[in-house]
Specification:
Layout (H helix, E strand, L loop, with lengths): L1 E9 L2 E7 L3 E6 L6 H11 L15 E8 L4 H9 L10 E8 L4 E5 L2 E3 L1 H11 E4 L1 H7 L5 H9 L2 H24 L3 H21 L5 H13 L1 H16 L7 H15 L7 H30 L4 H18 L3 H19 L1 H47 L6 E12 L2 E10 L7 E2 H4 L2 H18 L4 E5 L7 H15 L3 E5 L3 H4 L4 E9 L4 E7 L2 H13 L5 H16 L1
Parallel strand pairs: 3-13, 3-14, 8-12, 12-13
Antiparallel strand pairs: 1-2, 1-4, 4-5, 5-6, 6-7, 9-10, 10-11, 14-15
Helix pairs in contact: 2-3, 5-14, 6-14, 7-13, 8-12, 9-11, 10-11, 14-16, 19-20
Length: 557
């Protein structure tokens, strides 16, 4: 239950603290006073999208805070699903801030959450029934949702959708296989060419870089050869000079002898001999390279030819060896799929037949549940409409069979007749504004009686009704609010008279600013507000008396 709503800098509301209670909470006020702003603020903490224009002129941001008590099990489950720790006393605090640059911040029990998380939680906290709900009633494609809410077949419907999507995948796979034989042959020939070209190339990973390095060596063969021979001569020496290796050995021997007289020179002898060993290893490597260099039969033309081949293949099949080899594997897989498509087609057709049967059987089960729920729905809605001063109204749910689709095997449409002898027709074609408001209220009453809905908000449920029908709507709202919390925005005194708690929303202006105030009315001011609704700006003893009579009548209804 929503117990406290705090609104700061939202449109013309500078600051408002509203304390709602259980039962029927009524909001009234002049047109344009800001009733819709209160509903917009509630929508904001339920996760609905907001605009930066929501922020009051001259302010940097707006904030709405909502405090709930005695949250339902559905809300607790939603909190667990969103990994939000619930309060042990069953309370819940939600805040939503919006800045002038459009940024939004949402928190639940002090924990930051995303807008989608907030919207998921909001669905369990409050149900808002207004013009949007009325428009949904006029759209036949939304009617199935109402029946499914009563049929309690969501789990079976999820299984159905899994099977239905599987069936679509099999059909797509079969469609891909059912190309013409000439197309298959052409594709096989092309794949065979690609496979042969890549396999003949015998590509190995790292080959391109190795070839580039080899090409660089061959292009600089003379310089490399000259350097190798020069290094070998320095290290090994020649017929005229001792090499560095021999010189280092001699140096080490002299240092060792001097060590007998100058001990500080002895460590150098060991260092020099170690360096000699390193130079010997270097000489060995250079000798090996010289031998291989002289014996190499690789020529630059063959290296360039190989690089050219790999370059051309890379343009067709991928820039690296890995990409070209991956292309080869995929080409082989596709070739095998097409080459053995007849076997695969037979297997898919068998799978499709089995899947279609499962889809149809599950769809029939869902349809049976829906039709059983629809019969009960028709009876309950008709009963509610009779109470709402439409004793001759007839309401029915029309089912049409269709081929399987994501929602099953059914299409449904609500049919309605307001008067005796009048043929039932689609609701969208014959319902007036007042009739539609009462049908919406009747539908909501039935759904509320079959679900664990939290707070319900009716935004201008009185559209197009007056007199006796308004009294009936008011009585029904009080009935719905018994043991629950209902918040209702209304322009009718007949409905406002039934309030358990009455709030007046009024706009006040001076030379500097316009602000909207929200005040809970005491008994005396309730009568005065009802008199204003009845008679307008001029409040007379007669309108005050009529207002009091409406309140007295509500207490006996």
């Amino acid at each position: 239950m929503l117990t406290d709503l705090k609104i700061e800098n939202v449109a013309v509301i500078k600051k408002a603290d509203i304390s709602f209670e259980s039962g029927l909470n009524i909001l009234t006020g002049e047109t344009g006073a800001g009733k819709s702003i209160v509903i917009d603020s509630i929508n904001a903490v339920l996760g609905e999208r907001t605009k930066k224009e929501l922020v009051r002129d001259g302010e940097k941001g707006a904030k709405v805070t909502a405090f709930f008590q005695n949250i339902s099990q559905n809300v607790s489950d939603a909190l667990s699903e969103l990994d939000i720790e619930p309060e042990c006393d069953g309370t819940l605090l939600i805040s939503r801030s919006v800045t002038t640059d459009g940024r939004s911040t949402c928190k639940v029990n002090g924990q930051p959450v995303t807008l989608s998380m907030l919207k998921r939680l909001g669905r369990e906290l409050i149900t808002i029934c207004g013009q949007h709900d009325s428009q949904k009633l006029l759209q036949s494609e939304s009617h199935l949702g109402y029946i499914d809410a009563l049929a309690n077949c969501q789990g079976v419907l999820e299984q159905y959708r899994i099977l239905y999507n599987k069936m679509l995948e099999i059909k797509r796979a079969l469609s891909a296989l059912n190309s013409s034989e000439s197309d298959k042959k052409n594709r096989l020939d092309f794949l065979s060419y690609q496979i042969n070209e890549l396999e003949s190339a015998d590509i190995t990973v790292g080959e391109i870089e190795a070839l580039k390095a080899e090409k660089s060596k061959l292009q600089n063969r003379e310089a490399i050869s000259k350097s190798l021979y020069a290094c070998h001569s320095i290290l090994a020496g020649d017929e005229n000079n001792n090499g560095l290796s021999d010189s280092l050995y001699s140096l080490s021997s002299y240092l060792e002898q001097l060590g007998n007289y100058h001990s500080d020179l002895l460590p150098y002898s060991e260092s020099v001999i170690n360096f000699k060993y390193e130079m010997d290893e270097c000489l060995c490597d250079i000798s090996s390279k010289l031998e291989g260099f002289d014996e190499s039969e690789t020529d630059i033309d063959s290296v360039e030819a190989r690089l050219d081949l790999l370059y051309r293949l890379s343009k067709k099949y991928g820039g690296t060896e890995e990409e070209m080899l991956s292309f080869l594997e995929h080409a082989k897989e596709e070739y095998n799929e097409i080459a053995f498509s007849d076997e695969k087609k037979a297997r898919l057709e068998s799978e499709l037949a089995s899947c279609q049967k499962e889809v149809f059987d599950l769809g029939c089960l869902i349809s049976d549940n829906r039709k059983a729920a629809a019969l009960k729905f028709e009876e309950q809605v008709s009963f509610e409409l009779s109470f709402l001063d439409m004793p001759h109204a007839r309401f029915s749910v029309n089912f049409r069979d269709r081929e399987p689709y994501e929602n099953g095997l059914d299409e449904v449409e609500f049919l309605f007749s307001a008067n005796a002898g009048q043929e039932e027709k689609p609701l969208s074609k014959i319902a007036s504004g007042g009739e539609l408001s009462r049908v919406m209220l009747a539908v909501r009453c039935v759904l509320t009686g079959n679900t664990d809905e939290g707070t319900m908000i009716f935004d201008e449920i009185d559209t197009g009704v007056s007199g006796r029908a308004a009294h009936k709507i008011a009585a029904k709202l009080r009935e719905v609010s018994s043991g629950k919390q209902v918040i209702c925005v209304t322009h009718l005194a007949q409905i406002a008279a039934f309030a358990d708690n009455h709030f007046l929303i009024e706009k006040q202006s001076d030379d500097f600013e316009t602000v909207t105030k929200v005040n809970k009315l005491d008994s005396e001011n309730r009568v005065r507000e009802l008199a204003r609704i009845i008679g307008g700006d001029v409040i007379t003893p007669a309108t005050m008396k009529s207002a009091q009579e409406l309140i007295d009548f509500s207490l006996t209804s």
